[in-house]
Amino acid sequence: MTAPVQQKIKTDESGNRMVHCTTVEDLFLPAARNLIGTLARPFLDQMAITPTELIFSARNHSRIDGAGTLLRDITERASALQAKAIGQKTYDRVREVQGLLEQLSTKIRAFEAAEPPIVLKPGEFVSQTAQILRSGPPDVANLRLQRMLLENLAGCKNWLEKIDRLHALAMEAASSPYLPIIDGLLSESIISDMAQDSFFGRRMVLEDRIDDLIDLYKGTYPTRRMGEPHAIALKLQNLLKQLDLPETMAAIETSIVQQLASRNPIASSELMTELRATHAVLGRLRFNDRILGGRRALEFIDKRMGRLLSEEGIADYIRNQGSLAEKVTRLLEIYAVTFGPNNKKVIEGFLQRYFADEDFDRRLLTGEGSGAHKLRILANLYRAIVAAPLGTAEKGAFAQKISAMQTAFITSTRFFASIEKQVLPTAKKAFQVIDYCEEGCFIPGDNLEKAKALVRHYTTRPDFMDSYLGHIPSADGKRELLATLKERLDKLGIPLPVPQR
Q1: Of 412, 319, 330, 422, residue with least CA distance to 374
Q2: Which domain of life is it from (predicted)?
């Protein structure tokens, strides 16, 4: 039977619990109601009723009996799951469950025929509940209590009305030991997708629905709302902030997991957009040093990314990314938003094959473009490697390879010597190198230090100031140019070669 105060079932564990009812009273347990809520969901949504209302109402028994083969299908599915879990023949388990359901229906009908329902009076939920629980044996008292609540909810035409009524009952029960009773009914209500559509509004993108649930759990709803949120949603948010409703909170987590378990895209069918959105949702699931939905949420995010990050899928995506540098950069961007060790290994495999290619150096720098452009390609790739969440050894090896490639390119093309050979004033040569530094053309380390050394060489030459300031007639103009020069040199850690005037 259902105890007046029910314990919270952790979302992380509930998915692994397989209920195996052997008595009619077992059907009243939270685990049994959760299974019914999953298997009978279309029927429950159509009727706008909870699993508890289905179990404790003879009228609802008749409704599901008259719904074609629905009850038989649900019975067979539940029996198959349970039989597999305990090594029983499915046929035998089906007969057992059918027998239990017949006993349940007989028990509920006999009880309803024996006595009229107790009418729940406004504002008297606590006193009436206390009186009922003292009125007889626990199993009989529980039936009376559930019937009183179900008769009160029976007048609700839709999920909005039901949740609004449960909100009122929760406020009545706030400081009483009977709040968990309403908590259980509320949890069974809000886990319905149809109920969520009614108080959140229809969401065309799955990411928005998941974020609504996350916000509701965290007490920050709404953060992604375009228009005015529904009054019931705001009531629900305030209720969760004010009262301790562990089952309802667990139901929100379960609902998040169910959304993640669907095969609908989080945001888009385009690979990179979907990966970024999924990774962002993972970040928002973090709350108080844990992940909402626990292990199951992580498993479904892993599976979602796994469907996107197959060898074939990545190869198709990379094939259209242009140059080799762009392909490697895209892989690093994918890696940065990839979750799951197996998914990461797929991306790591592509990266390792590229970097191990004997022709990698030539392919990376082949094509049109100035020397500075090719230096920038290497520097940008280096920064992408450093920023990627690669393992320390791999990151170090990849970064070192790209740095060595840039050193070799500077040497083979005599890049710095070519600047010196240009027929330009010293100041223009200096600012050309400064521009390259500010544009990020050089990889930090020896290459950047060589460029900065060349800047110092030019700025300390005797003709530098004349070539930089000689055409400026006013003292104010000279001071302004010196200030600009100092600002740019400060960013590179190079001192101004002459005192300011």
Answers
A1: 412
A2: Bacteria
Spatial contact of 133 and 177, defined as CB atoms under 8 Å apart = no
Same domain, 100 and 206: no
For the record, the structure tokens of 361 come out as: 């150096």
pLDDT, residue 2, reads 39
Q: What pLDDT score was predicted for residue 498?
A: 62
Q: What is the pLDDT of residue 227?
A: 75
Mark the ranges of the chain whose per-residue pLDDT is less than 50. 1-16, 499-501
Q: 3-state SS of 168-218? A: HHHHHCCCCCCHHHHHHHHHHHHCCHHHHHHHHCCCCCHHHHHHHHHHHHH
State which residues form the domain around 365: 311-413
Question: Within 13 Å, how many C-alpha atoms sit on residue 447's CB side?
Answer: 26
Taking the C-alpha atoms of residue 412 and residue 391, their distance in angstroms, rounded to an integer, is: 31
pLDDT of amino acid 412: 94
What's the whole-model pTM score?
0.85
CA distance 415 to 374: 11
Same domain, 271 and 339: no
Which tokens sit at 75?
A: 């019975």
CB distance 216 to 252 below 8 Å: yes
Q: Are 283 and 266 in contact (CB under 8 A)?
A: no
What local confidence, expressed as pLDDT, does residue 368 receive? 76
Angle at 192 between CA 189 and CA 197, to 5 degrees: 110
The set of residues, in sequence order, having a beta carbon less than 8 Å from that of 93 and lying 6+ positions away, is: 79, 80, 82, 83
Q: What angle do CA 160, 164, 166 make, to 5 degrees?
A: 120
What is the DSSP-derived secondary structure letter of residue 140? H
Determine contact, residues 164/10, Cβ cutoff 8 Å: no
Q: Within 13 Å, how many C-alpha atoms sit on residue 53's CB side?
A: 28
CB 223 within 8 A of CB 210: no
Residue 138 resides in a domain: no
Q: Are residue 105 and residue 16 in the same domain, yes or no? A: yes
Answer whether residue 470 is part of any domain: yes
d(CA 234, CA 461): 71
Distance CA 301, CA 57 (A): 39
